[in-house]
Amino acid sequence: MATIRLRDVRKAFGLGSKPRREKAGSGSRRRAFTPYAREEPAAEDPDRVYALDRVDLTVPEGQTMAVLGPSGCGKSTLLRVIAGLEGEYSGDLFYDDRNMQDVPPKDRYIGMVFQNYALYPHFEGHGNLSFFFRIRKAPDKEIEERIRITSEIMGIGFRALLQRKPGTLSGGQQQRLAIARAIVRRPQVFLFDEPLSNLDAKLRAQTRVEIKRLLRRFAITALYVTHDQTEAMALGDQVAVMRAGQIEQVGPFTDVRLRPANTFVAGFLGAPPMNLLPGAEVRDGQIALSDGLQIRPDPSLLKNLQPGHALTVGIRPESVQVTVRASRDARNPRGAPPSVADGDAQPVNLNDAALQSPLTNVWPGIVESVEPDYGRRRALVYIQAGGQRLVGQADIRARLTQGERIVAQLEPTGLHFFESQTGARIE
Ligand SMILES: Nc1ncnc2c1ncn2[C@@H]1O[C@H](COP(=O)(O)OP(=O)(O)O)[C@@H](O)[C@H]1O
Ligand SMILES: [Mg+2]
After folding, report:
1. Fold entry, domain 263-427
2. Which end of the chain is more exposed for a tag (fewer CB within 10 A), N or C?
3. Nearest residue (CA) to ligand 1, atom 18
4. Is the CB of 226 under 6 A from ligand 1?
């Protein structure tokens, strides 16, 4: 076990080179190890793409860092640098206080699990688990003992997989075998590269729980790479959000969600993510948006906002309450008066006159579409208010319909503000 630290790590690829595919059995075994040539961070070179661009990251001993970001942002490259599978890069990588520059992959004690399982197809499960030890000429007794313990840890039904070749196993079974193969080596670091992406939704949830159990049990330092925020939230003690080779924010998932550092992070987390409303400006102690829409933020926030400052306003769907207009009664084409059972018991009591400007935190609008979410007893409601499009939520019993006139109430405590130009959070 070790604390892993990356300091100012940069890794560039020439634009002509092709991304590599993980093959079964690729990795330390076949690649001749050469100590890395040190690269000076090149001045911006238009012919190179920085898969990692000045990455600083610390994964404390025994913790799991979820690395979350869109496809192509450099997640796999980050893992490969840590595993020692990437050639030239600049910056430093430490396991505890040891600089790993000259340490070959096989001496790093890594357990790696890939999206495509990367099992040896011609070996049965047993052979996949024991291969690592055989090439190190470990005694049979020790190998069998390790496999026995690992099978116990993996739990019910695992033993049966040892007699079968990967080609005869389902995706979920193959991934269990791949996880076991990482565990049997007693690694000091676990690296997971989108291990659940090829599984169907139900199996993904099951395997996620299983991986969580194993991570808790071993308390081995781990990096878990994914583009799926549910996985990141479930498995990471902390999450590092990546974009285009850079780490945008690191912290416990809750912190990152509550206080996203910039518009990228804000717009990446959440399903659906935070509404980001551009074109706002501070005017007379209020935030003015297009078409007379206004927002009154918490006074403590307002003092950090300069008049005339160009802003993007962020608000999560959960903080936008959508209700029918009080006048629905008269216009309700179904003719039925709202009832408690319909969730219409307390429509916002505003008539059209009261909705005239200033429309501070309470905006009239119309419904563009509705997506019921029965599990949470709410509906996501996509609305248009003034010139803005946003998503809010309504009580599922309100049965809003497309084109219906509504009001959206924005909770002042749910507001976030970002600089228009840089996207950086203001607080
Ligand atoms: N061997 C390679 N040669 C050239 N470009 C590569 C190679 N590996 C990765 N890249 C590029 O580096 C960037 C990051 O890739 P990767 O780390 O695989 O992203 P992710 O795992 O987040 O999808 C991408 O633009 C990708 O095309
Ligand atoms: Mg990848």
Report:
1. OB fold (Dihydrolipoamide Acetyltransferase, E2P) (2.40.50)
2. C
3. 76
4. no
